[in-house]
Design a protein that fits this description.
It is a single chain. With 279 residues, this protein is α/β, with parallel strands linked by helices. The protein is built from eight helices and twelve strands. The chain has an eight-stranded mixed beta sheet, with helices on both faces. It has a two-stranded antiparallel ribbon with strand order 4-5. Strand 4 and strand 5 form a beta hairpin. The protein is globular and about 50 Å long.
């Protein structure tokens, strides 16, 4: 990821992109990362079926504003600094899902930066200000990161800002099914009736998406098995789950770091690049 080349890096935020192939894993990892950094901002994107949009779907953006110098970057925050956030639906009409997200993300980061929330000392405490961005299911982080790095260079408000990491959330309980699934990845819908009747699907298979997200990530965050999971179905002679070996092999091809327990990784560690577990 890029490094700050201009501006005051000490008060400029670092952005961490979080990717995943299922929403539950994304939510679990995002909650864990934010638990240790209550001042950090979060922008979360989800996909909804939208028959009125040309692509048949909309992107829903939810924001948890950052805290800076004891106040929230949010005109609706109360006097105690409680962050209320906000939600907006963005129809996918004239561009693809990835482009819709990256253009909106650029605008949202610009709004926060121009509000001055990170100016004159930045976020509460001594940590580097941080923004966690939870991308929609299946959306790759590298194109978003490259776009943001260019935007930071082009806009005055982007001085010192950088994309620090692309973290991928992987649930070991369901990894085997998703990795070998050749059906198209469902992006939205499928909650009522037959999935093929009310769902919106990616052109790629679920297995392909899972592999690409692991390969591109700087950090692969594994959610530990909490049920019977894959450990009850296939283990090697020493009793080890082979899914971890598969994940390591894919991550090693992209120089990624595998973290065996996502809940032990902090947002600060991702910002500093210190989540170092052997691949």
């Amino acid at each position: 990821m890029g490094n700050a080349e201009h501006g005051d890096e000490g008060s400029a935020p670092a952005v961490v992109l979080l990717t995943g192939a299922d929403r539950l894993s994304l939510d679990s990892v995002a909650f864990s990362l934010l638990d240790g950094r209550p001042d950090a901002g979060m922008i979360a994107y989800d996909v909804r079926v939208d028959d009125a949009a040309s692509a048949g779907l909309s992107v829903v953006r939810r924001c948890l504003p950052p805290l800076g110098r004891g106040r929230a970057c949010d005109p609706t925050a109360d006097v105690l600094g409680v962050r209320t956030g906000g939600m907006e639906s963005l129809p996918v009409d004239e561009c693809c899902l990835s482009c819709t997200v990256k253009h909106d993300l650029e605008r949202q980061l610009g709004v926060w930066a121009e509000s001055g929330v990170w100016r004159d000392g930045g976020a509460v405490g001594a940590e580097t200000p941080a923004v966690l961005v939870m991308l929609p299911v299946g959306v790759e982080g590298v194109p978003i990161a490259q776009y943001l790095e260019d935007a930071f260079q082009l806009h005055e408000w982007g001085a010192g800002m950088r994309v620090a990491a692309i973290a991928n959330a992987v649930e070991l309980d369901e990894f085997e099914e998703r990795f070998y699934d050749d059906a198209p990845l469902m992006l939205a819908g499928g909650l009522g009736g037959e999935a093929e009747d009310d769902g919106v699907f990616d052109e790629r298979s679920t297995g392909v998406v899972v592999s690409r997200l692991i390969h591109e990530a700087t950090h692969v965050l594994e959610l530990p098995v909490i049920g019977r999971g894959c450990l009850a179905r296939h283990v090697d002679a020493s009793g080890e789950c082979m899914c971890r070996a598969i994940i390591r092999a894919i991550a090693a091809g992209g120089d990624g770091v595998v973290c065996e327990d996502a809940h032990e990784v902090t947002l600060d560690a991702l910002v500093r690049g210190e989540a170092t577990v052997d691949v």
